[in-house]
Every structure is written in structure tokens, then in C-alpha cells.
Write a structure and sequence with these properties.
alpha+beta, binds zinc ion, single chain, about 475 residues, about 45% helix, six-stranded mixed sheet, 434 Repressor (Amino-terminal Domain)
Length: about 475
């Protein structure tokens, strides 16, 4: 782009037309026009000919700097027009000729910049969000959810704390990790509601609210903030970038709170003793159940040679997070999105809600079309909304787990077939056409709601409710 601008600038300042310059270098004017418009990269020999014809050294043509303020604006507008946000306006391409006044150019470039900034905000339509989630999940699956680069950065970050391994990271160690990287921690009560933490990059302070809840406990939130910094994150370009950064920062926080060496040693010992259990990670490293289960997926496949899956769902079965490298078939929409879909009623993540003690681990064997899995599910008591966190492994790996002696066995035909997606025929016959539910909005799910007669509504639940209440 700049090369083309410099070329045009030099040619005009020499009073040459495209045809005249083309004559001198033995090229068609149209070919030179392509170069000047940045649509072609010139060969070195052509560059040398051009430089000679314009009596400048080749370096002069190759300088990155725009030849003038005007040229800089022309470049900026040309690039802006190639931007997706600009293209979506559907305007015909504006050819910036010499007659476009410079102040008009300035306005256009400013406007295009504002448009780009606005579009770059990490928001997304449900379609974009679902696509971004699906792509990220497949990237995670490819590396068995193990990111060696982040493990290394977490290990180095932890080094100054003098952590020798074994248990939880103390508050003192945490603060020394933060201060080693130049950050002071401030606990405040008036943090904006929309943020978990706020980092003041000028004064190197991280603000957090003092409230110990779930994965968002102050320790995890602080480390997520530090993670963004140490992983070199910049303002996210789009929603996919935002999502990737959030996953990486969460990974970093978990890798500091459950350091690779210590956690793998712990898990390997438990495996040898045939006593693997997520809740032991929770107790030993003082982390939330969700973080522990997710950390298990980082390390189990890489270090214990064990495929696994992870889900987070609400009491209605709507999936918020899902990961698998063990072949389990999740419900998915046509775009491959899993978030927002409703999981099978027979799966552990739903059964746990009707278990006698939902805050204790619920173990079961689930026979599914893709095989039988041993799953442990628990409702995280530290979240106010009640999410079930499930970790599962293929049947043959159940022998390493505590709870494998459970007699609970479920058979699931989902996601295909006639398993639980349709209400039982007699119920449907009684109530079809006679129910008008008003769906609860799931605005927090960044994806489409499970499809039903009414989006987001479980028809079977509705019909059962009606049946029950109609009888009294
Ligand atoms: Zn089902």
C-alpha cells in the first residue's frame, strides 16, 4: 500500500503520466496502476527499473512511511474500505482521486476509524458467538485441552513465590507473585458491576471485589487479570479473540493455583491408589469444583493418558460449557454449537439435580450411542445459580475413580433418536395445543436457545407440570 503511494507521489512530482512512466520501464500503464493501487507486489527487477526511471534509490520506494500527510490519508481510506465493517455498508468503492479535498479525506478516515472501533467491541450476534465457541472447542480438543506455553508461563510466574508444591497457594504467595510482576492489589467495594477485576495499567494496580464466590474468587480473578498481562493480550479484535483470551486467562489462573507438577503428582498418586476424585483437588488446592474439574481435563489426557469430558449446565439442562476428547456426542445445533443446547435428561449433569444430596458428588454409568461413560457430577454450592459440573471418562477408565462402585446406570439415546426430547405420547396427546408457556429469557447464554415449540421451553416439563396441577 505505502509502496504504491510512494510510487504515485514520485511519479506525479516528476510530472509523469502512467503511460510515460510505463514507457520508460517497458511496462503497460495498467500494470503500473495496479502497483500504485497496492493490488500487485512488484518484482525486485521492476522495482529497480522504476527507481532508476524516477532517479531515486530503491530504498526510497520501499520506505514504510507515507510520502505526505495527504498520501497517509489516502492509504488509510484505502485500507479502511477493505475492512469488513466498511464493506458491510455496501457502498461502491470510493476511488480517491486528486479532486477529493484533503479535509473530506480526513473526515472519512476519522469516521471509518470510529466505525472500526465500534465494530471491534467484543460483542457478537448469537450466530457469531456460537461459531466462535465451536471453533475454540475444536482447537482445544486438538491439543487435548493442554497448552504447554501457558503452563510454562504459569510456572515462571509462580517461581518468585517460593511455592514448593503440594497444597494451596497462600494469600501471601499470591501477593508476592503479583508484586513480583509489579502489580499492587486493591480490594474495593465499588467495583463496576459489569467487571470481575479492573487493571490500572498506568499505576500497576489490580482492583478486585472481596467476595469469595466460585471460579470468581478473588484469587482466581487476580490471577486471570495477571494472566491477560503476562500472556500479552491486547484489546480483543472481535468476539472470537475475546473468548480465546478469556479461556487463556482462566487456564493461566488454574495453572498457577494448581501447578502442573504438583497437580500431576497428586493425580498420578490418586490414580495409582484407584481413588481419583475431583473433590480432592478442590480440597487440596482450595479451588472451586468447576476449576478443579476443568483443570483435570487439562492434565488427564496429556499426563494420565485418559480421555475425558467436562460439562457445565443449569438445572434445566441447558449447557453453558462443554469439552470432550472421549467421543461423547453432545447435543448440537446445525452449526456445531453446544452452548445453549439442552443435555439428555439421563446424563449425570441432570440426574444430580434430583439426587438426595446435590452438593455431594453424584456418580453414574451412562450408556450412550457413542459408548458407556463413568460420570461424576456435582452442583457447585459456591455459585448462587446452581450449576452442575460434570467430569466423565470412558467406561474402561472408571477403574481409577472413587465412586466406580455405584449401581446407578442410565441409558441415553440422545442426541439422536427418541430418547427424551419428546414428551411421552400419552402426555402429548392430552396437552398438545393446550399449553401456552411464556419462555424465560436466557440472555446470559451467548447462543441460541434449544429449539422446541416455544424456544427455550422444555415441552415435557411444561406438560408434566400441567398434568400434575390439572389433577388437583
Ligand atoms: Zn435423552
Amino acid at each position: 500500500m505505502t509502496l504504491g503511494q510512494r510510487l504515485r507521489h514520485l511519479r506525479r512530482s516528476r510530472g509523469l503520466t502512467l503511460a510515460e512512466l510505463g514507457e520508460r520501464v517497458g511496462r503497460a500503464p495498467s500494470a503500473l496502476s495496479l502497483l500504485e493501487n497496492g493490488r500487485r507486489e512488484p518484482k525486485l527487477s521492476v522495482l529497480e527499473d522504476l527507481a532508476r526511471a524516477l532517479s531515486v534509490p530503491v530504498e526510497e520506494l520501499l520506505r514504510r512511511q507515507a510520502p505526505s500527510h495527504r498520501a497517509q490519508l489516502e492509504i488509510a481510506l484505502e485500507e479502511a474500505q477493505r475492512d469488513a465493517a466498511y464493506a458491510e455498508l455496501g457502498l461502491p468503492h470510493l476511488k480517491v482521486g486528486t479532486r477529493v479535498p484533503t479535509d473530506v479525506l480526513e473526515h472519512l478516515v476519522k469516521l471509518a476509524g470510529a466505525l472500526r472501533d465500534q465494530r471491534a467491541k467484543p460483542t457478537a450476534t448469537p450466530e457469531e458467538a456460537r461459531l466462535a465457541n465451536a471453533e475454540l472447542r475444536s482447537a482445544m480438543r486438538e491439543r487435548a485441552n493442554y497448552f504447554s506455553a501457558i503452563e510454562r508461563i504459569a510456572d515462571q510466574a509462580l517461581a518468585p513465590a517460593g511455592y514448593t508444591g503440594g497444597g494451596a497457594l497462600s494469600q501471601g504467595m499470591l501477593l508476592s507473585v503479583m508484586s513480583h510482576h509489579g502489580f499492587a492489589v486493591r480490594y474495593v467495594q465499588d467495583l463496576p458491576r459489569s467487571v470481575r477485576s479492573l487493571t490500572d495499567l498506568r499505576n500497576h494496580r489490580i482492583y478486585v471485589k472481596q467476595e469469595p464466590v466460585g471460579t470468581h474468587s478473588p484469587r482466581a480473578v487476580l490471577l486471570q487479570a495477571l494472566g491477560h498481562f503476562l500472556l500479552g493480550h491486547e484489546a480483543p479484535r472481535d468476539f472470537a479473540d475475546f473468548l480465546r483470551q478469556r479461556v487463556e486467562a482462566n487456564y493461566f489462573a488454574a495453572a498457577v493455583l494448581m501447578p502442573e507438577k504438583a497437580a500431576v503428582r497428586f493425580l498420578a498418586d490418586a490414580k495409582d491408589a484407584r481413588d481419583l476424585a475431583v473433590e480432592d483437588l478442590v480440597d487440596t488446592f482450595s479451588v472451586s469444583y468447576e476449576m478443579a474439574a476443568h483443570r483435570f481435563t487439562n492434565l488427564a489426557t496429556e499426563h494420565l493418558d485418559m480421555p475425558c469430558h467436562f460439562t457445565k449446565n443449569d438445572s434445566g439442562g441447558v449447557i453453558y460449557k462443554a469439552y470432550e476428547c472421549d467421543g461423547l456426542l453432545f447435543p448440537a445445533d446445525p452449526s456445531g454449537a453446544i452452548e445453549g443446547q439442552r443435555m439428555c435428561r439421563k446424563w449425570a449433569g441432570r440426574q444430580v439435580f434430583s439426587a438426595p444430596d446435590r452438593f455431594s458428588p453424584h456418580c453414574q454409568y451412562s450408556a450412550t450411542p457413542s459408548g458407556t461413560y463413568f460420570c461424576v457430577s456435582q452442583v457447585d454450592p459456591r455459585t448462587d445459580r446452581g450449576f452442575a459440573i460434570t467430569l466423565g471418562v470412558p467406561y474402561e477408565h472408571s477403574r481409577w475413580f472413587r465412586g466406580r462402585d455405584t449401581s446407578t446406570r442410565m441409558r441415553s439415546g440422545c442426541p439422536d433418536g427418541d430418547c427424551c426430547k419428546h414428551p411421552p405420547a400419552d402426555l402429548a396427546a392430552r396437552w398438545e395445543g393446550m399449553a401456552w408457556p411464556s419462555a424465560r429469557a436466557h440472555s446470559h447464554v451467548l447462543s441460541a436457545l434449544p429449539a422446541g415449540i416455544f424456544p427455550g421451553v422444555d415441552d415435557a416439563d411444561v406438560y408434566e407440570f400441567l398434568d400434575r396441577h390439572a389433577a388437583t
